[in-house]
Structures are given as C-alpha cells and as structure tokens.
UniProtKB/TrEMBL annotation:
Pfam families per record: AAA_28
UniProt keywords, alphabetically: Nucleotide-binding, Nucleotidyltransferase, Transferase
Organism name: Brevibacillus panacihumi W25
One GO-annotated biological process of the protein: NAD+ biosynthetic process
Binding-site residues for NAD(+), renumbered to this chain: 18, 113-115
Gene Ontology molecular function terms on file: nicotinamide-nucleotide adenylyltransferase activity; nucleotide binding; ribosylnicotinamide kinase activity
SUPFAM superfamilies assigned: Nucleotidylyl transferase (SSF52374), P-loop containing nucleoside triphosphate hydrolases (SSF52540)
Protein name: Nicotinamide-nucleotide adenylyltransferase
Length: 353
C-alpha cells in the first residue's frame, strides 16, 4: 500500500475483545500507517443481547478501556467509540459509517474484518477503501463474541486477553470466627483450582507487630481493610477464573467491635460497596487452635461470637452458605459450591474435571 495509509477495524466487541480480535487488530496494524479501532455501541440493543445470553452487560466505556490498554504502546493505533443503532436495517451501517468517518477525520484506504459477507456493504460505505480479510475461517483463534455470550467467558478463558480476564474473575470469600479453618481452606482451594488467593490481612498485620493481645488500636482496622482490598486487586489480576479471599470488611468490623469495642463507619461503607460472587461461612465446629494471635477460645464465647458475626453479615444482607463438619467434609462442601459457581460438573468424590 502507498505510504500514509489509514485503516479501520470495527466491531461491538461484546462482551469483550477476545484473542481473535487482538490478532486481527495486530495484523491490521502491520499493514497500514495509521489504524483506527472502532467500538460501535447501541446500549439498549446490547443490554438485551446480554440478557438473552449468559453474561452481564458490559458498558461501552469498559470495552473502550480494554482496547485503549491493548493498544497503549502502539502510537499509530487509535481507539474510538461510535454509536451505531442496531435495528437490523442497512441504514444502521450508514449511520455508523458517518460516525466512524467523523471520528477518524480523514479518508480511509483499508477496512479490516474477518467477514467475507461485509465486502458489499463496505464497498458502499467506503468506496475508496480496500476490504482486507483477516483469518475469515477463524482458524488462528476459533472464537466469536456470540460464543462468549452464549456459553460464558469461563468456558473460553484462554481466548480472553490477560488484561480482560480480571474483570470476569469470580470472587469467593471465606468468613468465620477465629480458628475455624479459613486460612487452610482458602490455601487448599487456591491450589486445587490452580489460582491465587488473598490471605487474612489482619493476621499478617499483627504478626508484623509481634502480637495483637492488648495492643490493637482503632486505627489499625481501616488500614487492615484497605490493605486487604489492595491485595484483592493484585491477586485478582493474576487469578485463573476464581479468586479465594480470606475475610473481608464485615469480619474486620466484627474484630474491631471485639478488640476495641467500637464499630467504624468507614468499615461499614467498605462493607456496603464490596462485591463478592460467593460467600462461604465456616461454622466453628472444628477444634480451637491457639496460634499465638487468637483470644476467644472458650466454647461459650466462641458460639456467642459466631452468632454476632452472623448477625452482622445479615445486617448487610449477605447471603452466605454455611459449611461445617471435619476438615474433609468442609473441603468437599466448598468444592461443590465452587464447581457450581464455575459451571463445572459436580462429580463423585468431588474430583476436579
Ligand atoms: N459501520 C461500519 O463500518 C461497521 C464496521 C464494522 C462493524 N460495525 C458494527 O459492529 C457490529 C458488530 O460487528 P461484528 O459482528 O463483525 O463484530 P465483532 O465484535 O463480533 O467482531 C469484530 C471484528 O472482528 C472480526 N473477528 C471476530 N472474531 C474473530 C476471530 N476469531 N478471528 C479474527 N477476526 C475475528 C469480525 O469479523 C469483525 O470484523 C456490526 O453489527 C456493526 O454494527 C460497523
């Protein structure tokens, strides 16, 4: 092609750009001097499309953000969002093309897609541009947006760019009072599902100080909650479909009440804002182990604290799933729930598929 060529690659990229899209964009970027990636959108139509599939609606701003991240080190690639109505009429494409040309602001030399069927309409819309097909049989990355919408993103995890995956990670939080096997269960689950986890930050915090008995201060608790949230973000970015999390802001609030006798508004606010896909509640029916940072071992106190924590969770409208029994039973019950969440079959002896 002549120097100074301008190309366009467009789509709705719903629910998200997949590896086939990334491949097409990169191939296109090597063939022109300037490439414009166009994210077309029609909110009402897309919401309906997502409702009919099995994915939550992903706003255009999020899709634009992913494309911006994907192309941030490619100075000759530019990303735009353009409204194109989706009524099923050819007029939609004409309206879209007007918006696309206005966003690009210069004549187009090439239009890229993987659809041979688009050649006639592109010929009408962009008569001076060449339609260049990239992998029309979708052999390099056999995936499509409709497969992701219909079958869910977890089934096609390896077809999602690494920067997109964290958005779809399922967050499983494990809560309970002291010494009910949370840390062990969280670590075991993370290893079994080959993914990452977030440790109980309050514990790490006091281990760093050397103890927690009689030395906790009210200001420790917001700090614990902030650091915990930060680690959720860090580990979530590396997770493989699911992230296991040991405790959260409501448990931190519960400890604030127990240790310093007060409830902290900022923890209530975090508790209201946080979102998890699944809550596992561990009943305190395994042996109490004193690991040096624990204080409430007496059976009656243990039961009373368990009741208090449940009350607090219920106050925030949390729908948790209780798990009890010995360590083997707890692991098996947890795996049944997690398999269900991930859409995996629950097999005999709960073996992994
Ligand atoms: N007005 C325009 O010029 C224009 C151009 C393109 C798209 N659009 C709009 O975008 C909407 C969606 O278009 P779509 O369904 O083609 O978008 P899409 O989001 O499914 O795909 C975007 C592009 O990537 C290509 N692609 C998809 N999967 C691929 C894979 N595995 N490997 C390689 N390439 C792959 C597609 O052929 C398409 O060109 C259209 O209905 C239209 O509204 C408009």
């Amino acid at each position: 092609m002549k120097p100074g060529t301008v190309g366009m690659y467009g789509g709705k990229f719903l629910p998200c750009p997949h590896m086939g899209h990334v491949y097409a964009m990169i191939r296109a970027s090597t063939m022109v001097d300037e490439l414009h990636v166009i994210v077309t959108y029609d909110e009402a139509y897309e919401q309906k499309l997502c409702e009919d599939g099995c994915i939550p609606y992903i706003p255009v701003r999020v899709r634009l953000r992913w494309w911006t991240q994907l192309t941030k080190d490619m100075p000759h690639v530019h990303v735009h969002a353009v409204h194109q109505p989706e009524t099923g009429e050819m007029a939609d494409w004409h309206i879209g093309a007007q918006g696309i040309l206005a966003a690009i602001g210069k004549p187009l030399d090439a239009v890229f897609s993987s659809e041979t069927a688009y050649t006639p309409i592109f010929g009408e819309l962009y008569p001076d541009a060449q339609h260049i097909l990239i992998d029309p049989k979708r052999e390099v990355y056999p995936i499509s947006g409709s497969m992701l919408r219909k079958e869910g993103v977890l089934k096609h995890w390896n077809m999602l760019p690494a920067i997109v995956q964290p958005h779809f990670v399922k967050k499983v939080v494990v809560v309970g009072t002291e010494s009910c096997g949370k840390s062990t269960l969280v670590r075991n689950l993370a290893n079994l599902y080959n993914t990452t986890y977030v440790e109980e930050w309050g514990r790490t915090y006091y281990e760093r100080l050397g103890n927690c008995e009689d030395i906790t201060l009210p200001e420790d608790y917001p700090e614990i909650a902030f650091e915990h949230k930060y680690h959720e973000k860090v580990q979530g970015a590396k997770a493989n479909k699911v992230l296991f999390i040991d405790t959260e802001a409501i448990v931190t609030q519960y400890f604030s009440k127990l240790y310093v006798g007060k409830r902290q508004p900022i923890l209530d606010e975090i508790a209201r804002l946080q979102q998890y896909d699944f809550w596992l509640f561990l009943e305190p029916d395994v042996e109490w182990v004193d690991d040096g940072t624990r204080s409430f071992g007496e059976e009656q106190v243990r039961q009373e604290n368990n009741r208090l924590l449940k009350e607090l969770l219920e106050e925030f409208g949390v729908r948790y799933h209780s798990i009890s029994g010995n360590y083997q039973e707890r692991l098996e019950q947890a795996m049944v729930h997690v398999n269900e969440l991930l859409g995996r079959p629950v097999v005999k002896n709960h073996e992994m598929k």
